[in-house]
Amino acid sequence: MGFLPINPRSLTVRLISLGAILLCMLALFAYSSQSSYTFRFRDFSTFSQRRRSSCPPNAWDSGQWVYKPHTNLTSMTKKEDALEFAGLDGCASDREFFWHLASDVKEQWGRWPKVASYVWKPADNCDVRPLDGSAMIKDMVEQGGWLLLGDSITEGHFFSISCILYPHVRATPNYTENPYFDRAWPQNLYLNPSSPLISTLSLPPNFSIEHTPLVTFRRVDLLLNKTELVDLHKELYNPPDTFELFSDERFWSLSPKEYMPIFLTPLPEANYGTLIASTGGHWTTTLLNGYRDDSKKNSGYGIEGVLEFFNHAMKKWATDVQEALDAHQSNRNNAGHKTSRRVVVRAYLPGHEDCHNILEPWTHWHKPKWDWYNWSWIKDFNKNFQRVLSAPAYPDIFYLPIDTPALLRPDAHASGDCLHIMTGAGVMEGWSHYIWHFVSRELAGRIR
Q1: Domain 53-442 adopts which CATH fold?
Q2: Strand 342-346 relative to strand 272-277: parallel, antiparallel, unpaired?
Q3: What is the 3-state secondary structure (H, E, C) of the chain?
């Protein structure tokens, strides 16, 4: 059987016709698709370019303390020895210097060197850079600094950061010259103009070595201010006119309406990339005295009411913060700015009973014998906050459940109480280490 002869001219005409038909079909499809759908670039970019996690929070949290001394020094003979035991060269902040190092009480010097000789070893599947102050500074300058919001525990974290970044940063205010600054006064870390690191940094346009902070701490105990919380309580519960939510106990707090503009302020006044928040310790029935029920002595004096209200308050907080971030994102897109902003919430921690009689880390958490303050319920505050932030409505707010290292260090508290943590024991340094990793590695692929 023979083949029919093919006319080349006829074949060309057929191919052209077929191509025209296909183009028409594609055009019709594109038109109909465009009329039916709105392409959501924001949602797509959030996930498509995310790097694979090298150490998610639960892997960091699932570790153990290992003995690894920083020095051959065997005993403390002066307060300053706490720095060498911790492997630190110094600290930029001078606020309550030796209290933060916990070396202010000579009778407790026997805690060294052991208390400063442990490092946190996360799960084996964690791939994390070593803690390096110089590398942290580079990331803070080039990717955005840190704004810390919280109570006195977070203030201790700020002090610890000033030691990690020393001597390449300077701190304000100067508490040696004037120790009477109110707790609400902002504390800042700036690049030290004499640091040799400066010549190696790619300073963003308008970055000011003198005026642009790398790290700032603001005292914000409850994350919302008193007026906001009273108004929220009235909206939710409609209490009688004689009801008083707060006692006279002193606390410090700000509204997101006050600190979000600070966080989002452009260069040269600020260049923050990460807001780090933590709360829990001041959510008590002594401060929120309207919930106090002395008949419930064995179950927290009414703490369950505080927990319920906390849940509502953190929903409001997250909504207010995300709305501010969304508005900034929209303005940033319109103006062509590229600096990303994100918020991380660090899990709060309870204290440890009888802490100064415990001289080494635990291998597992010990349930408290007494219900001091709200310590026995901190885990519930953390769970509530994590549950709130798991909602898709808050894509730029991340909860970090990294409290296990602190829970296992009853030996690492300040000299005067069993809640505050000393600088140099590795606990707060571990917070900085992981948060730095999280924002520079785990979130590096998120583009909004």
Answers
A1: Rossmann fold (3.40.50)
A2: parallel
A3: CCCCCCCHHHHHHHHHHHHHHHHHHHHHHHHHHHHHCCCCHHHHHHHHCCCCCCCCHHHHHCCEEEECCCCCCCCCCCCCHHHHHHCCCCCCCCCCHHHHHCCCCHHHHHHCCHHHCEEEECCCCCCCCCCCHHHHHHHHHHHCEEEEEECHHHHHHHHHHHHHCCCCEEEECCCCCCCCCCCCCCEEEEECCCCHHHHHCCCCCCCCCCCCCCEEEEECCCCCCHHHHHHHHHHHHCCCCCCCCCCCCCCCCCCHHHHHHHHHCCCCCCCEEEEEECCCCCCCCCCCHHHCCHHHHHHCCCHHHHHHHHHHHHHHHHHHHHHHHHHHHHHHHHHCCCCCCEEEEECCCCCCCCHHHCCCCCCCCCCCCCCCCCHHHHHHHHHHHHHHHCCCCCCCEEEECCCHHHHCCCCCECCCCCCCECCCCCHHHHHHHHHHHHHHHHCCCCCC
Tokens of 22: 């296909």
CA 375 to chain centre: 21
Residue closest to 104 by CA, chosen among 124, 80, 123: 80
Q: Strand 187-191 to strand 64-67: parallel, antiparallel, or no bridges (unpaired)?
A: unpaired
Q: What residue spans define the domains of the chain?
A: 53-442
* Prior bond of 401 cis (ω within 30°): no
Compute the C-alpha angle 360/365/367, nearest 5°. 115
Output the six-digit token pair for 415. Answer: 């000299």
Angle value at C-alpha 91, between 219 and 190, nearest 5 degrees: 65
Summarised one tens digit per residue, pLDDT across range 310-352 is: 999 999 999 999 999 999 988 866 554 566 899 999 999 999 9
Q: Which has the closest alpha carbon to 187: 222, 206, 161, 221?
A: 161
Tokens at 352, concatenated: 């440890």
What pLDDT is attached to residue 330?
86
The answer on pLDDT for 430 being more than 50 is yes
Q: From residue 102, give the alpha-carbon distance in Å to each of 35, 115, 439.
A: 66, 10, 30
